[in-house]
Records
---
Amino acid sequence: MTNWGVIGQERAVAFLQRAVAHGRIHHAYLLSGPPQVGKGTLALAFAQALNCEQVAPPCQQCRSCQRIARGVHPDVVVLGLQTDERSEQGRLRKSIGIGQVQELAAALALQPYEGRWRCVIIDGAERLSVEAANALLKTLEEPPPQVLLIVLTVDPEQLLPTIRSRCQRLDLCLVAEAVIAAELHRQGAPEETARHLARLANGRPGWALAAFRDPDQLATRSEQLTLLVEALRGDTLRRLDQAAKLATRFAASREEVYATLDLWQGWLRDVLVLAAGGVDLLWNQDWAATLQTVAATVAPAQARAGIEALRRCRRQLEANVNARLALEAALLDLPTLPTAALAS
Ligand SMILES: [Zn+2]
C-alpha cells in the first residue's frame, strides 16, 4: 500500500498518481464501484495529493494532508446523502437536493482558501435529484479554475449521460481476498481473523476494516443471518411480522436495511454455490453447516427466485415505494424450508 491508503485498486491509484505528477488534472472524475471498495478513500487521497505541501504527495504528514484526513480542510468538501433526515412530507430523503448543489456552486466560484485545489466529493451521486443533477451539470459545463469535482457512485448508469460524459471515469473493482487479509494482518489482526474477515468481505476492504475495528458488526451480521434462517423456516405470519420489523428499521436507517438485503442475497447465493458443489467458494464459510442443510432441501430455482425477490425489493425501496409492502413481498417470495429441516 502506498501513502494513498487505498487497499488494492492499483490501476486507479497509478492513473491518478500520474495525473498529479504531470499536473494534468481533469475538472471532474467519476469513481464507480460497489459499496466499500474504496471510492471515498481514493477520492480523499486524490484531494490530499493535489493539496499536499511535500514533494511526494500525499505525505499524510503535512498540515494539509492531515486536515483533509480529519475532514476539516476548508477547500475539501464532501457532499453526501442525508440518509435519515426527514423531509417536510414526513418521508425520508432519498436524494441529494438542489439546495446542496446550489450552495456548492456558490462556494466553487470563490478562490481556494488555503489549498491549491478546491475539491468537492459527491458521494452517492446516483441519488442526485433531477434539479440537483442539472445544477451540477452547469458547474461541469463552465468549471471555475482550480476546482475539482469527484463524483462517487455505485451505479454510473443511473447518472445523467451528460454528467458521465464530462467526467474522467475510473471503475474500481472488488479487491482480492488475499490482499484484504494481508492488510488486516498488517493492521494487527491475527492471521486467522484476517483470513476470516477477508473472506466475509466479498472484495470490499471497507467492510473488512470496519468489522475488524468494531466487533459489533460481526454480531449484527450473525443476528441478521439468523433472522433469514428463521424467515426460511417461518410461515406467512412469521414472515409478515419480520417484514414489519424491517420496515420500522428502514424508517430509522435505510442503509442498515439495504445491508441486510445484500447480506441475505449473498447467503442465498451460497446456497446456489453449494448446490453446484463449490464448497470452497462460499462467502459465508462460517455458516457452511446450515447452508448444507438448506442446499439439500431447497431447489436452486427457489434460491434464485429468492435472490431476485431481494434485489427487486431493494430497487423498490430506493424508488421510495411503500417500504412495508415491498419488504412483505420479498419475505413471502423467499424459499420455504420444510419444518423438519433446521429444527434447532
Ligand atoms: Zn502532505
---
Amino acid sequence: MTIDAEIGVACLVCGAICGTPAYRHDGAASVSSTGRAVALPTVVYVCRRCGHVQTPPLDDISGYYANAYDVHLESDDADDLYAVRDGVAVYRAQHQANVALAKLSLAAGASVLDYGCGKGMTIRALLAARPDVNAAVFDVSDVYRDAWNTSIPTENQAAYATPAKWDGRFDAVLSFFALEHAGDPHGFLAGIRRLMRPGGALHLTVPNVRRNVGDFIVVDHVNHFMPTSLRRVLAEAGFVDVRIDEEAHDAAYVVNARRGVGDRVAGPAESEVASYVEEAVGYAAFWSTATEAVQEFENEHRGRPAAIYGSGFYGVFIASRLTDHSNLAYFLDRSLHQQAKRVHGLPVLPPETLGDEVDVVYVGLNPARARAIVAGVESLQRRPREFFYL
Ligand SMILES: [Zn+2]
C-alpha cells in the first residue's frame, strides 16, 4: 500500500486516492483477527470510487502483541466454533467443507487445491466426505507439514511457492480466509487463476463486514471488502460468472467464479458504489462511539462483579476498552477451543458455570446476533442481570 502524507493512501483494488481515514483509534489497544490485543493504532480507509475498505498492513504483527501469554500457533483458527445446532457444536472447518461441496458439485476424482490452507482442516473435512477427490494443499509457510502429512500425499503439498507443474492443473481452487490479508489482492487472485484449468472453479471465502461489523476494525485484515470492490478485483483478475453469496456463511462472503478465457469482463459500475460507501462510513461511526458506550456503562456499574460473554474478537474489544479490570471475574464462551485459553489474563469458562455473584455481563458477540444468542443461554437468564450490548 502506498502511503504518502501529501497525497493519501491508494486503494488496493482500484488505485483511487482514499483521502483521510474514515476511522482512526489511537488510544488503548487494537484487536487482531485472532482476538488479541495489539499495541498499535487502528486506521481504516474507505474508497469512494469502488467502496473498498482497507487498513494499512502491519509488517510483523507478532512484534506488537500486547499480551504475549496466549500466543500460540493458530493461523487459520479453523477449529473455531461456527454454530451450535440442536446442542451440537459445528466447527468452522466442517462448515466450510460442507458449503464448498454444496457449491462446487465436484466430479469424481476432481483435482482440488486448498490455497492458503493453514493446518488443512477444511480439506481434511472435505476428504472425509469425498475420499475420491485428488486433494492438494499450499501455504506460504511449511510449519503445517506435520498436519498435512496426516491426509495429503507429499507430492500434493507445496510451501512458500507453488511448483510450475501445478499451473493450469486444478479443477477447483479453494481459498478460505486468506484474501483479507493480501497486500496485493490482484496478485493473490492472479496466482490462484494461474493454477486453475481454463473454466476451472474458484471457491473463496473472505470476511463480510456487512454481516460482522467487527471486521471493520480488525487490525491485521488489510482488506475489508464491500460487494463492489470484491466484484471489481475478481473481474480484473480474469474471473467470470462471479456469484457472491452473503448467506451461506454467517460472517463471510462465499464467492464462486470460473477462470475466464480471453478478455477481462468489466467490474461493477461506479453508480452502484455510493450506497456501499455510505454503509462503510456508518460502520466507522458505529466503532467511533463504541468505546464511549463501554466506558459509560462501566461507570454506571462500577464495583459490581462482572463477566464478559464471548472471548473472541468482540469480547477482547470490550476488555481492551474497560478502564478497570479489578471486578472482571472471567470470560464465558461455549467454544471448547476458547476454554483452553486465558484471555486478557483471565480464564475462559463454560457458560453453565456462571456464578450468581456476577450481576453485570458484557456481551462480546457480533451485535447482529448477540441478543438472540443471549436469550438462548439458560445460565444468563437464571436471575436478573445487567447486560451491556455493543
Ligand atoms: Zn477503490
---
Amino acid sequence: MNAKEEFKKMNRAFYERYSRLDDSDDFWAYLFKPVRQSIRINTLKAPLELVLERLSERYELEPVPWVREGFFIRPPGGGTVNFGEMPEYSLGLVIPQEASSMIPPVVLEPKPGELILDMAAAPGSKTTQIAQYMENEGCIIANDAKRDRANILIANLNRAGVLIAKVTVRDGAYFGRYENTFDRVLLDAPCSSVGMVRKNFKFAYTWSIHKVLYHTRIQRKLILAAYRALKPGGVLVYSTCTVDPLENEAVVDFLLQRTDAKLEKIKLPVKGREPILEWEGREFSPEVKKTLRIHPQDNDTEAFFVAKIRKPR
Ligand SMILES: C[S@@+](CC[C@H](N)C(=O)[O-])C[C@H]1O[C@@H](n2cnc3c(N)ncnc32)[C@H](O)[C@@H]1O
C-alpha cells in the first residue's frame, strides 16, 4: 500500500499542500496508519497505582513519556479496546485521550486554587486533565461555542468527578472583556484537524483550503481574546491538532505582532521538529522557533502544535 498514492486519490489538493510541508514517506505512511489507543488515569477518582494494577491484569500498557498519568493501551495479542465495555471508563477512572492531546494541559501547569479559562473545551478531555492537576481546588471556566458539544462536556465532567468547572456556551471572543482576569488560559482551538486523519479519513476527504482560511480567522480572534483575558505573569497555551502553518505558527506570529506576548520553550520528553518560519512568502518572528510542532511520525501520535505564551508583568 503506497500511502502517498492513497492520499492523492482521496484529495489531491490536500496531498499537494502538505507535501510542501513534509514530503517524507514516513509522514504519509504514519498519517495513513490508525493511531495507537491511549488513556489517561483520572487521579481525581482513585490513586494511579490502584487503577494501573487493575488494568494491567487485562491490558498491555506502555507509559506515555510526557504525561505521568498517560498510557498506550491494547488488549494482549493486539486488537482494539472497546471503551464502552470497560467498567473503569464508565466509572470515570480512565479517560480515553490521544497521547499528543495530553501535552497542552501539562504545558499549562495549572495549580490548585487558580482561576483557569478553557476557551474551547468540549468534549472536555483537557478540562478533566486540568481539574486533575488542580486536585479539584479552584475554578475552571469551561467554555464551548456549541451547545450540543457543551452537553457532552458536562457529561464527561460529571463522569470524571470534576467539581470545579463552570460550563458556559459562548463565542470564546466574549472572554476578551474580562481583561487581566485568569491565571492561565487554554485555547485548544477549532482547526482543520489534519492530525485527526489517523482517526478518520473523512478529515482528508473533506479538507479544503477554505476550511484552513475559515479556521485561521477564528483562531486569530480567539487568541487575541484569550491573551486579553490573561493576568499579567499568566500563561496562555495555544494548541491545535493540525499541521497547517496558517493555523499554527502564523497565528502565534499574529499575536506576537499585536501584543507584548512572549513565547517560552516547551521542555518535555517529546520529539518535535523545527517550526515553520516562512510560508507562502511570509516570514514569521524567529521567536516562533520556541513552539512545538509534532508530525505523526515523530512519536507515532496524531499531529499536534503547542505554543506556551506568557504575558509580561
Ligand atoms: C479542538 S476542539 C476542543 C477539544 C477539547 N479542548 C478537548 O480537549 O476535549 C475545538 C472546540 O472549539 C469549539 N469552538 C468552535 N468555535 C468556537 C468559538 N468561536 N469559541 C469557542 N469555542 C469554539 C468547537 O465546538 C470544539 O468543541
---
Amino acid sequence: MTDSIKILVVDDESVVVRSCKRILETEGYEIDGASGGREAIITMEKKAYDLVITDLKMPEVDGITLIRWIKKSRPDTGVLIITGYPSQETIKEALELGIIDYVPKPFTPAVLADVVGRAVEWKKKKVPEEEAKKEEEFPPSMIAELDKMIKSHRNKPGCLIPVLQRAQEMVGYLPPIVQKRISKGLNIPAAEVHSVTSFYSFFTMTPRGDHIIKICLGTACYVKGIEEVLGKIKENLRIDVGGITGDKRFSLEAVRCLGACGLAPVMVIDHDTYSAVSPKKITQILDEYQPVSK
Ligand code: FES
C-alpha cells in the first residue's frame, strides 16, 4: 500500500483533476487538486507534497513556470506532467528541468496508476548508499569501458541519447549507478539523464529477461479487457509489471500504446504481436517461448 504519499494534481480542466483523484485515491494516495499554477504554488507553500502531476498548458502561471518554481523552492518534490502531445518537442523543456515522467492524455486508470507507481518507487530509492553497493556488482573492466565511452562523447552536442544507447548495449540496462556516471561524465544534471531515460521506451532501468513481454495499457486495449490478460500473465509468471522471472526467461513491461489499437487488446513478445488476445490464450502463448540454453 502507498499510504501517506501526498500528490497534488494541477490542471485547469476540473474533470482531469477529478479523474486523477478518483483513480489515485483507490491506490491509497492522498490527493489534492489545483486549477492552475498560481493555486498550486499557494497550496504548496502551505503543504509539502511527494509528487506534483501538472498540465503544461494553463492560463496565467503555466506548467513550465510551475516546474521551475518547484525545482527551486521544493526540490524534493517529484514532478510528472500530463500532456496530450507527448512528443519530445512539446515536453523538451520539462525534460530538461528534470521531470520524472509524463502521463499521456487521455489516460486510462491503469496507465495513470502505473506511471505514478513507478515515479513514487523511483523517488523512494535511497540512491547514494544503494548505488555504492550496486557499483560493486559490475566488473571493474565494464565500469572502465563505460567511463571511456562516456569520455569519448563529452562536449559533443546531442550526445546524451547515443551515450545512453551505448551504455544500455554494454550493461544491458540503465540502473541509477550507470545514469549517475553518465551525468557526471557528460556534466548533465542527473534529473535530466533520468528524464530522458524514462521518456524513451527503448531505454530500460531494470534488467531484462530473454523474452520481453510488452502489454498495452492504452485506452483501446483497456476497454477491450487488457487488465484481465495482464492478470493472467502475472498469475502465470508470478511477477508484476517491471519484474523479471527468477529464471530470467521473461520480463514484463507496460506500454501506453503499441500503435495497433484496431487489434486491441494487444501484447508483444520480442518482435511477435498478439492481437485480440484473451486470458485463455496466455498459457499457450507463453509456452511457445522455451528457455534459452545458456
Ligand atoms: S491502445 Fe493498445 S495498441 Fe493502442
